[in-house]
């Protein structure tokens, strides 16, 4: 009889464990996961040892588009849709300008044959070594207060189209120069994960952007200073439904219906 009771207890434990586990589809909504994702994407840098502190814009972003290939109108429209979305999420003023000297973010739409030269001119000679294997590229510069004050994005359009990633390049690279520079396989679903098919911002990406531009954060804050503040914000979002509704809210961006989302 004791053996039978023990068997029932073990059977009950085995078949109740899956119910207690977190559904992978909503794992990104767990507070601990969101916090870890922020650490990976905002406080690390895939091409530099710099990081582990908050870097973001503290002034309006003005974007100049350098069209070196056809379809300028299409590219401009796609960029403006995403800039509007980023502005709505972060609260920053983000607009295109007609003169290069008025811009602090330069976007170059070029072709593959000029790709390496453009990278060298905008990012420096050392950046040429990371061109191989990349479809498009972005970089930003911070001042002494760790505020982002200059950024550039380069998209070789023929190469991006060949890989089916023109829109992905526009969305990911502009979003990264907002202060989320790192790609990570640990962050899912996200445009910052090269192994996922995300083309547009996911609900998790929306939350990461909102976290980065929370008033409680300041550029230059260390990981130790920033994470306790963000943990409190995430807890509030869990209570008020922000986290649960993020995947719906993010789809208010103009690119989503355009791509059939």
Summarize the structure in words.
The protein has 261 residues and is of the alpha/beta class. The protein has one domain (27-258): Collagenase (Catalytic Domain). Helices cover 46% and strands 13% of the residues. The protein is built from ten helices and six strands, in the order ααββαββαββαααααα. It has helices at residues 2-20, 31-42, 72-90, 112-123, 157-162, 166-176, 203-212, 223-240, 242-249, 255-258, and strands at 56-57, 61-67, 94-96, 105-110, 137-142, 147-156. Strands 1, 2, 3, 4, 5 and 6 form a six-stranded mixed β-sheet that branches. β2 (61-67), α3 and β3 form a beta-alpha-beta unit. α7 crosses α9. The longest helix is centred in the N-terminal third of the chain and has 19 residues, at 2-20. 33% of the residues are buried. Mean pLDDT is 90; it is low at 1-20.
Topology summary:
Elements: H1 2-20, H2 31-42, E1 56-57, E2 61-67, H3 72-90, E3 94-96, E4 105-110, H4 112-123, E5 137-142, E6 147-156, H5 157-162, H6 166-176, H7 203-212, H8 223-240, H9 242-249, H10 255-258
Parallel strand pairs: 1-6, 2-3, 2-4, 4-6
Antiparallel strand pairs: 5-6
Helix pairs in contact: 2-7, 2-8, 3-6, 7-9
Largest sheet at a glance?
6 strands, mixed
| CATH architecture title | 3-Layer(aba) Sandwich
Number of strands: 6
Strand content: 5-15%
Any key phrases for this structure?
261 residues, alpha/beta, Collagenase (Catalytic Domain), six-stranded mixed β-sheet, 10 helices, 6 strands, 46% helix
């Amino acid at each position: 009889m004791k053996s039978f009771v023990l068997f029932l207890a073990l059977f009950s434990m085995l078949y109740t464990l899956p119910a207690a586990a977190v559904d992978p589809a909503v794992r990104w909504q767990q507070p601990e996961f969101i916090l870890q994702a922020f650490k990976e994407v905002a406080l690390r840098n895939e091409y530099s040892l710099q990081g582990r502190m908050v870097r973001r814009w503290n002034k309006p972003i003005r974007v100049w588009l350098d069209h070196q290939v056809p379809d300028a109108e299409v590219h401009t429209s796609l960029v403006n849709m995403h800039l509007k979305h980023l502005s709505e999420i972060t609260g920053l003023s983000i607009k295109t300008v007609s003169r290069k000297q008025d811009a602090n973010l330069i976007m170059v739409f070029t072709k593959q044959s000029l790709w390496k030269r453009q990278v060298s001119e905008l990012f420096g000679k050392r950046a040429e070594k990371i061109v191989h294997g990349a479809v498009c590229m972005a970089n930003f510069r911070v001042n002494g207060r760790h505020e982002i004050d200059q950024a550039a994005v380069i998209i070789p359009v023929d190469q991006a189209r060949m890989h089916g990633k023109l829109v992905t390049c526009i969305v990911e690279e502009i979003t990264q120069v907002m202060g989320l520079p790192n790609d990570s396989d640990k962050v899912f679903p996200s445009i910052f994960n090269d192994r996922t098919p995300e083309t547009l911002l996911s609900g998790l990406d929306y939350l990461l952007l909102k976290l980065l531009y929370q008033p409680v954060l300041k550029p230059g804050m260390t990981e130790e200073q920033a994470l306790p503040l963000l943990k409190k914000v995430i807890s509030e979002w869990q209570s008020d439904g922000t986290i649960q509704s993020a995947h719906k809210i993010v789809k208010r961006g103009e690119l989503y219906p355009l791509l059939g989302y």
